[in-house]
Amino acid sequence: MQDINPYEEARLYSPHSAATRDAWESMATLFSIIVSLEYLERAYVRHGVDDKTYAPACQRLLAQFKTLMKLVAVPESQSPNSVGPLGGTMDGPMPVRDVADFMQRYKMHHTAAAHRLAVGVPATVEHASSSGSSGDGNARERGKNIAETTQGFITFMDAVKLKMRAKDQLHPLLGDLMGAWTRAGGEQGTSNEARAKVLGWLIKLNKMAAADEITDEEARQMLFDVEGAYTAWFASLQS
Question: Which GO terms describe its biological process (predicted)?
Fold first, then answer.
């Protein structure tokens, strides 16, 4: 066993690897984002923050999480046993597959954050918070939100019809649609069941890797569900 000199200055990182330090810092930042998201979710559930404060904060944390996961996650095509620690030295962090792997490795029991990361959108979008413009008496703002929702539906359906299948092509469009739909009052009328189907597709896309693609059968079902949601939402505007 190697003798330890108690008078020797302890080094936090390998002296020859800046990449190792960057890797640990990325892991630490990812850890802090998950913890922050957990506290934000629980504060929102307990009415500690309102919708206007919660939504942008949650959206920002989700965006930061997605950016960091690209830095720390190992590609699906690469075996975790065939790669060394990040940074190329033995004192770097072990690679992770996804957020579930990361949370298990570092014993993070943050169920609220895990759910929000799986859904990929704030709770105000997932559950269509009733604080949207549909009930605030602002007809001009409501008209704008309805127009944006209509545009979102048409744009997404056109994308599917044009054979777009990759997650990085469809997820941003569907996320924009759900956001506009929420602002336009997506929780009202007869569109709740149809909305749940569209949300299910958003969650499915969120769990996929950027380059992953849905099958033609899935695309057909997705288009059917979105068209049904569009019809139900449009009908709810007449009531």
Answer: protein transport to vacuole involved in ubiquitin-dependent protein catabolic process via the multivesicular body sorting pathway
Answer for the pair 103, 72: CB distance below 8 angstroms, yes or no.
Answer: no
Domain boundary among 123, 151, 170: 123
| DSSP for residue 80 | G
Measured between alpha carbons, how far apart are the two ends of the chain, in Å?
79
Q: 177 and 115 share a domain?
A: no
pTM assigned to the model: 0.75
**pLDDT tens track for 58-82:** 999 999 999 998 888 776 555 555 4
- Residue 158: count other Cβ atoms within 10 Å of its Cβ: 11
pLDDT, tens digit (0-9, with 9 covering 90-100), for 106-122 = 999 999 999 999 999 99
Distance CA 215, CA 195 (A): 22
Helix (H/G/I), strand (E/B), else coil: 112: helix
- Provide the domain limits for residue 162: 136-238
- Give CA 119 to chain center in angstroms: 6
Is residue 187 within 8 A of residue 130, CB to CB? The reply is yes
